Amino acid sequence: MRALRSIIAVAVLLGPAVPALASDAPRADAPAAAAPGFALRGFDVRDVEASGATLVFDAEVSNPTPAAVALAGVTFGLEVDGKRVFEGTLADGADVPPGGKVAIAFPGRIRYADLPGLAAKTALGRKVPFKLVATAQLRTPAGTLAVPVVYDGELSMPQRPGVGLHGLRIVSMNPFDAAIEVSVSVENENAFPLPAGSLQYRITIAGGDISTAALALPEVAPRGKAVVAIPLKLSLRKVGRGVVKALKGDAAMVGLHAVATLAGLAWPVDLEARLPTRR
Predict the structure, then answer these.
(1) How confident is the model at residue 124 (pLDDT cuts 50, 70, 90)?
(2) How many angstroms separate the CA atoms of 21 and 197, rounded?
(3) Counted domains in the chain
(4) b/e for 244-273, b at 16 or more Cβ within 10 A?
(5) Residue-number span of the structural domain to which 229 is assigned
(6) pTM over 0.90
(7) Same structural domain for residues 240 and 214?
(8) DSSP letter string over 66-101?
(9) Residues 190-243: tens digit of each pLDDT
(10) Fewer Cβ atoms within 10 Å of its own Cβ: the N or the C terminal residue of the chain?
């Protein structure tokens, strides 16, 4: 009987100690240890030209662990409307000390001609949404860790050059023929120069076709404007009475129906304006 009481007493004494010992074991819902990370913070636009721009992406490698890690490399690609417009790689990068962070940057060149629906995007003057998909390889004491990230942003498009009818000049005119000049203007509202281009045009006066040909467009300085004269020789017996009457008057209705091409971008131009007949 005394032996039974001793066993019960020992059990009562040990009972409260068992949960205390069990509480020292790891719990299933305990937070996991922090791991090295890779994050994209933003981007900058540089070297903007009529043909494209360079995007420089800012990223950060963080290391909350007690051991040093190293950036083994980054692979990345940029997508617009589901189309991959450029890809790139970054070789071995910086070492990140325990508890430290390191900022890195990697560039990618984008060509406007590679963007889907470029003509519509520049005509509307809207920003173009893009998606950067990148994967960083982080070298840790336990092995290499792949960290995928996705960054969504918007890219401002350059302003499409403005093409306009600038003037009409009657150089000479007799009962049989006439020499005239139709001036076309090209205006650049961008902060970079526009390269030389071309204009495939059809010119009308008072509704009658006058000429169909091609015109070389000059380079236009940033925030600048260029005016090009198109010299035309007309047979007054062929152009019709309406055209002759318009040229003899103080002003004439001139039409420009063309396709302009600059830096790989082509767009239609359809203009009509009543221009004074300068002599």
Answers:
(1) low
(2) 83
(3) 2
(4) bebbeeeebebbbbbebebbebebebeeee
(5) 162-278
(6) no
(7) yes
(8) SS-EEEEEEEEEEEETTEEEEEEEE-S--EE-TT-E
(9) 888 989 999 999 999 999 999 999 999 999 999 999 999 999 999 999 999 999
(10) N
